[in-house]
Amino acid sequence: MGYHVVDPEDLDPVPDRPCDLRRVSEAADLSQMAVNRFSADPGEQLPLAYHYHDEQEELFFVAAGTLAVETPDETYTVEEGCFFAVDPGSPQRAYNPADADGSVTAVAIGVPAVSGDAHAYDPDDTDGGDDERGGA
User: Could you tell me the pTM of the whole model?
Assistant: First the structure.
C-alpha cells in the first residue's frame, strides 16, 4: 500500500513558465496520471502555448478564482469549484484574464501521463502547428 500527502507549496516551481506551476505527480509517486497545480495572476496563462493532446484527456478543477479557457469555438468561463474537461485532439488555452479581480488556482489532471503528446495550436493555421512544449 502507498499513501502520500503532498503540499504543493513544498514543491519547487517549474522554471520558465507563464505562471506558478507545481508538478504534483512525481511527489505523489503517480505514474498513470499527470497532476499539476497552477496559480496565475491576472494576465497570465497556464500552459506554454495554445495546445492540444493526441491521447491525453485533461480535467481542470478551479480551486480559487475564475479560469478562462479559449477554444476554437468559444471562450469558456470556469468558476471556482467547477471542473472543465478537454477531450484529446481539442485545442485549448487556459488563462487568467488581464482584467480579473485576483489570481486563479487550478489543478490539472491529465490521463494517461504521456510525454511528447502536446502540440501547439495556431487558431489562424488550419494545420495547427506542432510543438511538444505546449502541454499543461
Answer: 0.89
CA 116 – CA 89 distance, rounded (Å) = 14
Beta strand pairing call for 67-70 and 104-111: unpaired
Cβ–Cβ contacts within 10 Å for residue 74, how many? 8
CB neighbours of residue 94 within 10 Å: 26
Contact 122, 50 (CB under 8 A): yes
Query: Which residue type sits at 8?
Result: P
Backbone region of residue 47 per phi and psi (left: phi > 0; alpha: psi in -120 to 50; beta: other values): beta
Residue 125 to residues 72, 121, 130, Cα–Cα distance (Å): 11, 8, 11
Quote the CA–CA distance of 28 and 79 in Å, as a whole number: 27
Q: Which residue type occupies 17? A: R
Q: What is the pLDDT of residues 65-101, one digit of tens each?
A: 999 999 999 999 999 999 999 999 999 999 999 999 9
Element (H, E) at 118: strand 118-120
Cα–Cα distance measured from residue 34 to residue 110, given in angstroms and rounded to the nearest whole number: 5
